[in-house]
Amino acid sequence: MARFGIEEEFFLLDEDSLVPLAMNQGLRDRLTGQRAGGTVTREFLTSQLETTSAPLDTTADAVTQLYGMRTAMASEAAPDRAIVAATGTPFVWSEETVISPSPHYDEVAGILGGLTRTHEVNGLHVHVEVHGDEERVRALNRIRAWMPALLAITGNSPFAHRRPSGFASWRSILTRRLPTGWTPPHAHDYTDYRARVDGLLALRGITEASSIGWTARLSERYPTVEVRVCDTQLDVDDAMLAVALSRALVTTDDLDDGPEVGLDAIDASLWTASRFGPEARVVDPTTGDAAPAWDVIERMLSRTAAALAAQGDDAFVRAQLARVREHGTGAQRQLRALEQHGLAGLRDLYRATTAPGGAERQ
Fold first, then answer.
1. Which residues pair with 40 in a beta bridge?
2. By CB atoms within 10 Å of each CB, which of 38, 63, 232, 326 scores lowest?
3. CA distance 171 to 157
4. Is the pTM of this model over 0.90?
């Protein structure tokens, strides 16, 4: 059974206004470090934090670490009247973004230019261990057309500038502005993959290979395929659904027997998934035709059934998908909280995501 790792990104928000907070050094030192077996680190903006799990074998271990890191951050932030929020974009954008002090981040900001001011985005990244460079490339080729369906049920960034954006994943639209924002190219082999990465580096649109933002890629640090399509998830159950499906996709070796799906169809499907969430129509990798996202998810479950069973995740995935159908994605639950209870509703929802037991079923 393949080991896996999880990276989650969060905003630190002012408790009253929900404006992202630029952390001072003292608060950042309290929040970061080893927590619950994982690690909390700073991110691109001083209002962001990232958690990184240790290498994991089971869903139970992952749940323990994710809950532990979330609750530890929330506990340290509370005395400063701050909330740790698991959302892909903030409800209120910062008047002035502050870059975390780092030569690397300075270089990234220099390339992004004016985009830096609105690049407040958080994602969930799932690393799945795959042995051998060539097999990692084959796995990446197999899963790329399934990324829109996965995005459709993991959108969790519905807001832009204090109002609904009309998109389930506004984060995905913001990352589309970057040189490597969406679908990875189909690589013939590992040599071809490296050549494509080197070509992008030569254009100087990215600072280093680890800055590539495709929906899935080969990790530059670990022997893993890294699924990056999902917004950071509202609660741990949401995150673990994305993790379980990502691991099952990467480890299922017979996903590529359907028709060849062009990059244009995949990218268009990512846009519709970003816009409409689970109500989107996306490309079906088994037929090459457009289909409702829920139908494609069902085909995904059928094709990955053996992997999900081997992981011990099949019952959890079915139950969590039923929960999403009944209560909505993170984006839908955020919109409902704002509509029903205003800013206070969002505040309570964000707080609940870092409390034991996970986010309320709103």
1. 33, 51
2. 326
3. 6
4. yes
